[in-house]
Amino acid sequence: MKMSVIRSVVIGVAALSLIAVAPAQADPEPDNWIWQARGPATSGSITGTLASNNDVDYYMFYAASQTQLSVTSLPIGCGSSLGFGLYDTNGDYLTHRSASTTKNVSMNYTTPSGTNRFFVRVYRISSLSSCVGQTYRVNVGPTSALLAGPSMNSGSTPTGEPNETAEQAAGPLAADTIYSGVSETQNDQDWFYFYASGAFQVEATENAGCSSDFHLYDQDMDYLGATYAGENRYRQFTYTPDSWRRFYIKVDGDCVGAGYRFSLGPASAIQSGPAPVPVVPGGVGALATRKTKKTVVVYWAAATGAQGYQVRKAKKRKKYGPWSGTANTWTSIKKKKIPKKRGMWIKVRAVNSVGHGTPSVRKIRR
User: Fold this and answer.
1) How far apart are CA 75 and CA 364, in angstroms?
2) What sections of the chain are H helices per DSSP?
3) Are 61 and 41 in contact (CB under 8 A)?
């Protein structure tokens, strides 16, 4: 199984314009799959040609919240042999129309709240010989509703096998990266692993007219859930771990040649490795004091790796009492409990589940 890694597409604010295509020239290929969609179309005009009888063209645009959107096919000589459809951000079908040789044909759709991504798919309906090489035009409006955003990035970098079992799992996977692969046999399995310390999402898609199942397991190989990738559809699966853990993804394709793509996010949840090995906390540094009318407050800097602090007191330096715990970086002592002449010794150390740091000592007076 060959796989490639490409950078994930994240909705943003970078302005990119659709490249206009001159008559009698095919639009830039490849754009046959949803992740290869051209755009975003910000001018409201989409122009291209179908280069062959089995060619499919995808375009993408961003639309503003709750807009009365109109996607219109201009007349083309081959008429109803050409179809165009509107799809949502996950590639799910919304509506479609057939082109006409004599009139404009429109799809009308009210966008949901928020900024949304949409796709336009141009494809053949019947014999397309009269349409090959002819320029089609689709207008998206109103243009005031079209927003800037990032294009679909389909660059790739190959990686390799084997990853047929959990013991051979490829990884660790990174966040905001799209991983792609192919099911090469009927019973092929691909295994991957990654580390997560917070709520994460797996997003997947598929080509080749097949579908792939994505199964999620924890580090003990307990099954956690699944999603599937359908042809030109994006599907998501979310999970919230209770701690920093290692996870596995198993991919099963339902037919030979099924090509899948998936990504993990957000970056804040996906870690590059296992949880750091706990160590004893650092020191609290020099102890400082400030006085109020009735108390002396002893305070210190937060220690690296500390889960809490311990304080012990001595009216004589070598006769300390027991340690007492606190979550604060200070402790308050009533003045009347501090001997007038000798003062009092204070010792403070940071603690965690591993142990304690080096204590700091200071003598205080009323």
Assistant:
1) 91
2) none
3) yes
- What pLDDT sits at residue 5? 37
Contact 196, 244 (CB under 8 A): yes
Q: How many residues does the chain have?
A: 366
Q: Hey, what are 342's tokens?
A: 């000798």
Nearest CA-CA partner of 273 in 196, 168, 178: 196
Would the pLDDT of 265 be above 50? yes
Cα 347 off chain centre by? 47
**Is 124 in contact with 51 (CB distance < 8 Å)?**
no
- Helix, coil or strand: residue 34: helix
Amino acid at 249: I
Pairing of strands 3-7, 157-159: antiparallel
**pLDDT exceeds cutoff 50 at 69:** yes
Average predicted confidence (pLDDT) for the chain: 86
Query: Six-digit token pair at 96?
Result: 């479609």
**Strand ranges, E, within 101-151:** 105-110, 116-124, 135-141, 146-147
Summarize pLDDT for 112-167 with one digit per residue, the tens: 999 999 999 998 887 656 788 888 999 999 999 999 999 987 765 545 668 889 99
Cβ count within 10 A of residue 219: 13
pLDDT of residue 124: 85
Beta carbons of 48 and 136 less than 8 angstroms apart: yes
Dist CA 231 CA 233 (whole Å): 5
Residue 294, exposed/middle/buried by CB under 10 A (0-12, 13-18, 19+)?
Answer: exposed
In 3D space, the residue among 164, 154, 160 whose CA is nearest the CA of residue 187 turns out to be 164
Residue in the structure block whose two tokens are 């951000």: 89
Higher local confidence (pLDDT), 31 or 351: 351
Cβ neighbours of residue 310 closer than 8 Å, sequence gap 6 or more: 323, 324, 325, 326, 348, 349, 351, 356
As given in the structure block, the two tokens for residue 343 are: 């003062």
Identify any residues that bridge with 226 across adjacent strands, giving them in sequence order.
Answer: 215
Q: For 144, which DSSP code?
A: G
Banded model confidence at residue 15, pLDDT cuts 50, 70, 90:
very low
**Dihedrals phi, psi of 121, to nearest 5 degrees:** -115, 125
Torsion from C-alpha of 19, 20, 26, 32, nearest 10 degrees = 50
